[in-house]
Amino acid sequence: MKQYYAIIFSVIYALFFRVLADFNIIEINSFDYFLVVPVVLGYIPFLFDPETFVNSIYKIIFFSWISSFLFLLIAFIFHLEDIGCLLILIPTYFIVSPLIGLIIRSILKYSKKGSIGNLKTNVFFLILIPIIIGNIEKHIEKEETHFVVEKSVLIDTSSKVIWGNLFAVPVLTNHMNRSVYNFLGFPNPVRSDYNPKTNVRLGYFDNGVILHEKVIDLEEYKKLSFAINVQQSKLDNSQTFMHVIKKESMIFNSITYKLQSINESKTRLTLLCDYKVRTNIPLYGEFCSKNIVLDFESKLLNALKSKIED
């Protein structure tokens, strides 16, 4: 029975640190939350029933997966995370926790018998490690990496016609393709409204997110650039947007359309996203951001092409 207490305690432990992130005691987009907490989760089962887990590789893996699954499920149900966040967390929690458990099992199995009895020594220090590391990490300057991701499409019409659809983008719902990222919680753009008096465009997404975008540069029929005002945008409907954009882990410098006339009836439309990623896990941030941004650009451009040529 003690082994099942390990699952309950692991879930409560992970949820506790997730709530701490909302109170800014630790950071949500951090080495601490992504890796240190899963490491401790891999250790917790041995605090409750060390003999059982030392003698069963399968229970180490299974119990780690069950604990991680229940934690992420509860976080999703209570809107602490959305599916986009889960996509990012699943690899670390489902790989790191059982891996740490297997390492501890090997150490205990082939060490002196007294080692099992010493597991609970300094246990409170171990439990508090994420808080300690999290507070240290908050004072370490995050690595900042600059990216420009672009995608182009050929549209069978003039640059003038395309230009008229960029400020106030028409409803694209019937022209927008869906990708695996949509099933993982990342929204599709629906339409945008433009106010010429304020020079502001509001971009509406299918999950209720509204981006407040200011025109910062334009060259008629050739170039149009926007900057996102995060404070005036409505991001509450997406935990992913809140974590990534609101917390400034991903900072968009500009979103730019470029038009190149091929001839009177054909134009190349290019969409460029200029952004920075601020994180303590740079390779992970780079991989995720590039793929998500490229998927967004591709779907938006193809939807515009379909709408305009329709």
From TrEMBL:
Species per Swiss-Prot/TrEMBL record: Flavobacterium hungaricum
Domain of life: Bacteria
Protein's name according to its UniProt entry: Polyketide cyclase
Membrane spanning residue stretches: 31-48, 60-80, 86-107
UniProt keyword terms in alphabetical order: Membrane, Transmembrane, Transmembrane helix
